[in-house]
Amino acid sequence: MGIPSSLRESLSDPVFWARYTFAAEDGPGADRLGDLEELLDEDDEDGEDLDEDGEDQDTEIRVTFDVGGGQALSLDVDIELDNHELGIVGPGPAEFAGLGWDNLAHWHPYALRWPELDLICQAIAVLDPLLFHPGVPMALLCRFAAVFEDDDVDAAVATVDAAFAALRPHGWDGYWPTGADWLERADFRGENVLWHRDDAGHLWAEQGDDHDADFYSTRVSPPAGNGDGFPHARLKDLLAAAAATVATGRP
Predict the structure, then answer these.
(1) pLDDT, position 50
(2) Residues contacting residue 56 through CB under 8 Å, at least 6 positions apart
(3) Among 16, 83, 229, 235, which is least packed by CB within 10 angstroms?
(4) Is the dihedral of CA 208, 210, 211, 212 positive or negative?
């Protein structure tokens, strides 16, 4: 568990965050890039990453976040391909269950509601004090959460902002992601997104026709009897494990 060394070294690099948050692709925060634009252009001119044999290298980094009870979130980060995927692993040999993905082509990132993400990050911090909250988990995972009318949005933005600020290098006053940048992509207040809950407690969203921003998510239908679609039961189990970890202070 923990953050792989190859990613840990990037967490204090503004170029990494410019790419990870898509600020480098005219996303929120692009107007603050300043001199980083030259570094980003140089990286683009270098072309594809090749290994010593001239073959394409695997640029994906996998991060696993333990929430307790054998439950964990898996985050695949691929800066070179601008593609990031979130899913559930465990308990035991259970197969990977995809929750969402974010890229520049056909994104469906919004798998979590804000309170769910906050709970998950609290559980991660209980099990690994080095992954304190708000910190690395919140900074990396917030792209997969959205806020709605019944959320405390001010508190959410402040938490995300604190997570990014905790990673900012001392003395660096150039581009750095903010909670406000996150909110630009995550704010679905007034976008006609209605949430439904069944008797088992599973939640899914439905977006009406009258909206400006499309709610791109795979969590938009009730549980399917054949197990296809969004992994509602797996997410419910993961959230229950996270809640137990936070309540007891141990896995």
Answers:
(1) 42
(2) 48, 49, 50
(3) 229
(4) positive
Task: Look at residue 94 in the predicted model and tell me its pLDDT.
Answer: 85
C-alpha torsion 14→18→21→27, nearest 10:
140
Structure tokens belonging to residue 236: 């419910």
| Residues whose CB falls within 8 Å of the CB of residue 248, separated by 6 or more in sequence, listed in order | none
Q: Beta strand pairing status for 83-89 and 145-146?
A: unpaired
Report the DSSP pairing between strands 112-113 and 145-146. parallel
pLDDT (tens digit per residue) in 70-121: 999 999 999 999 999 999 998 988 889 999 999 999 999 999 999 999 999 9
CA angle, corner 10, sides to 7 and 14, nearest 5?
Answer: 150
Question: What are 113's strand-pairing partners?
Answer: 146
- List the 61-68 sheet strands across, edge first: 61-68, 71-78, 83-89, 97-102
Which residues of the chain fall below pLDDT 70? 1, 43-58, 226-227, 251
Nearest to 167 by CA among 124, 135, 138: 135
